[in-house]
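User: quick one, fold this
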Amino acid sequence: MAYDKAEYISKQNEVKEKLENQIKALAESYKDDPKIFAEVLKFNSKFYRYSPRNNQLIFLQNPYATFTDSFMGFKKHGYNIKRGEHGLKILVPVQVTYLHDTKAGEWIQLSKASQKLKQEYTKNEIEAKTVQRYKIGTVFDISQTDCPVEDYPKLYDMGYNDPSQTGLYEGLKRYSERQLNCTVKESDLKSISLRGQFFPVSNHIEINHLLKDSEKLSTLIHELGHAILHNEINSSKATSQIEFEADALAIMISSHFGIKLTEGRMRHLSSHFYSYSELLSEQAQNSKNNSQLENIDKVLENVSSKFKDIIPGLSESISAKIFPDDDCEISIKGLYRHYNGDEFIHYTSTKNGDKEDCLTNGVKCWTDDKNAERIKALERVETINIERMEKRIGRNRPGFNAKQALEAVKSMQQHTQPQAVPVKK
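Assistant:
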């Protein structure tokens, strides 16, 4: 079968359009489970209620503080403040009593009054008044305690551990640091709601150290979207557009590599999709609004274009992390594909599956000519790398989910240039 460039481009456009439509459909259809918010409200009721002024003070010191309480407040719930943590300062109201000393003609604070005045106060023989004053108090965010992540409300799910996602995470990190010169580090962000952040000035990404594998990968993909699309220091774009664009690119990347979307990512996408849609509606209705917001389709088209540009580099970076050996970057012009009469078995560079061929690696290959077919020169042979990876994983990384990793790499290959030419058996 000859390689048809026009057909390839047509299919790529179909995939792009389908993906864009899926993103819009997901954003429009996603609905949170009301039980999740009920759970959050119930969890929040355990913590002290702060005045608007104190809420503002907490926000100014840590805008991502989620659940806060005093040292003793957390202690009451069975949680301890981690050593070395610095709290958030608030104003604590206290009642101060003053006694009127008639001889001196002045008001004296009860704690500083003489024994005689205190006795007169106890017998109600002296005039007294109570004044509200404020002192500095300290509270902590739940992220600063030893509260296990399993106790967090589902809305703040930290994800789950899955070693099969480690290679993808490291590959994306490699791309960020080598291709974008954007460093990635896991940090204590003093929050359970802030998953990660991108800093365009210093061009680096921080990932919340509390996250487990699945949420860590999802967050890195989103922040990588910001690093790719929003590396301007002073951007005039609305926050909702910026977040929607980053989510759209993150979902395209996730779909490409077969990564399951987390609830948090879908919730985030839907929220900013509707916020940006409202901005577009306001612009259409307000003739005085001179800003030129791009419609949703145009935004997705721009993101898709960027996605197409970065995929080869992303695929290379992930492949390099999964296949660390240089000899895995191979290109062979002719191979044979072997079947057991029906199911695909193995690749070799010889028709009879010569045992001395290094590609067989001791795996028995079928020698029947009718069960072996030659692969055309244009087809990429990343499948050999997959087999090598599977053996390497089994040898060096016990417990690694090779099946999921292989599916991710296969998905990667489907979009890698040049397009593989299918061979019918």
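User: anything notable?
Assistant: The chain has three domains: 11-26+157-322, 39-150, 327-414.
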